[in-house]
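Hey L., structure's done. Input below.
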Amino acid sequence: MANYENLLFEVKDGLAFVTVNRPAALNALNTELLSELGDVFSRIDDAEDVRAVILTGAGKAFVAGADIAQMRDLTTAEGREMMKRGQRVMESIENIDKPVIAAVNGFALGGGCELAMACDVRFASDKAKFGQPEVNLGIMPAFGGTQRLPRLVGKGMAKYLIFSAEIIDAAEALRIGLVQKVFPADELLAEAEKYARLLISKSPIGLKMAKRAVNAGINLDLPSGVAFELEAYVSASASEDRVEGMAAFLEKRPAQFKNR
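Output:
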């Protein structure tokens, strides 16, 4: 198992836990941390023993944003490269074939909010805070925030939050659809693991193809999305998982999925 300077990483019974671990800097995203996130999610995507992922933060922050102390001294060209790196990392998280659950334990601001949005499902602590405050710094979201936020909460609400730089609490994030569940802080990780293990019990090929269909279809017109869905279904139905899943249903027993 790889060792990282800014991440904690472990796999337990098919579930990968990735913890951003720069608590003294509120887990701010610097270039080194972005590289490590890219590496760990590449490893996870290739790992046959991993079926689902929980991403969280150490201390009182999920990720409080990009590392402004580092960004301040970047040239425009260097800043562009950092944003491109961040975008690639978010895309890699969004597009791995395994479900990724963000367990947002505290501040998820700027790049931290963008990191959470790249995950498939977001669970939040009742102490969590969300926002895109970049315009307060003379910049704008550039790890995908202007694109993912409207897709999650609608164009009007996304503009409202990005333009105002307002920080919202977990209850408001739930109301607008930015997160799916809110839990007391001391229950967050247990609830995230409970959900992740539910997903582990499902068909891997079914989850993989469903994720691909949702991710692709959101950017397509409806007929094209439905056509993509059909081909994804065909790929899943050609697997051993379909035979096992349907047999288990008819025999009223738990399915023993093997396809990876």
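The chain has two domains: 7-200, 204-251. The longest strand covers residues 7-12.

-- N.
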